[in-house]
């Protein structure tokens, strides 16, 4: 005997929707990533001590925290001598960093001779990974730190771009093409 099965028409494959995130599953999202950092913190520690650097970090935090909140920052964490801050848009991140730079004179009040609060900032926009504890990571975060670490010595000059001798050494923001 031969059995013939009734054939159903072949259905199109349906895309599988991702499972809802569980507490252990990472979440991807696009955010603006900002790094704000004290310039020459190693020199400040060497010259004035760790307690002094902590005082400067507290001054920065005193200004950066409320400014970031006003510009809708969703998450921030300490980087030791600065902060890594996430915003819903590059425009909000840029406005926040700009406002922080405007506060530098207030952070320099009553410092010892030769001490100075100076900042450098970097801004990027991209996909980040949020872990179960809310911490952010990913290549866009790493790129922001690489951007923040640029200096005149490491700058590769391009036609129409900034020249090494024009590169600022303090109180500036560098933005990636993705953030522009």
Write the layout of secondary structure elements.
Elements: E1 27-38, H1 41-48, H2 50-70, E2 75-78, E3 82-87, H3 90-102, H4 104-107, E4 119-130, E5 136-137, H5 139-148, E6 172-175
Parallel strand pairs: 4-6
Antiparallel strand pairs: 1-3, 1-4, 2-3, 4-5
Helix pairs in contact: 1-2, 2-3
Q: What fraction of residues sit in β-strands? A: 15-25%
Helix content: 25-40%
Number of H/I helices: 5
CA-atom Rg in angstroms: 23 Å
Task: Give a verbal description of the structure.
Helices cover about 30% and strands about 20% of the residues. Helix 1 packs across helix 2 and helix 2 crosses helix 3. Strands 1, 2, 3, 4, 5 and 6 form a six-stranded mixed β-sheet that branches. The chain is an alpha+beta fold. The radius of gyration is 23 Å and the shape is globular. About 25% of the residues are buried. The longest helix has 21 residues, at about 50-70. The termini are far apart. The model is unreliable at about 1-15 (pLDDT under 50). It contains five helices and six strands; from the N terminus they run E-H-H-E-E-H-H-E-E-H-E.
């Amino acid at each position: 005997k031969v059995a013939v099965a009734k054939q159903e028409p072949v259905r199109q494959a349906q895309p599988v929707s991702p499972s809802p995130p569980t507490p252990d599953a990472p979440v991807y999202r696009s955010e603006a990533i900002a790094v704000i950092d004290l310039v020459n913190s190693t020199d400040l520690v060497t010259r004035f001590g760790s307690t002094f650097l902590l005082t400067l970090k507290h001054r920065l935090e005193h200004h950066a925290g409320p400014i970031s909140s006003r510009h809708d920052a969703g998450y921030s964490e300490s980087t030791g001598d600065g902060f890594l801050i996430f915003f819903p848009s590059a425009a909000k991140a840029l406005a926040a960093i700009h406002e922080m730079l405007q506060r530098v004179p207030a952070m320099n009040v009553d410092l010892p001779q030769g001490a100075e609060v100076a900042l450098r900032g970097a801004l990027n926009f991209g996909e980040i990974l949020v872990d179960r504890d809310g911490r952010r990571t990913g290549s866009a975060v790493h790129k922001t730190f690489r951007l923040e670490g640029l200096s005149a010595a490491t700058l590769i000059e391009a036609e129409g771009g900034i020249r090494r001798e024009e590169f600022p050494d303090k109180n500036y923001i560098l933005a990636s093409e993705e953030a522009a």
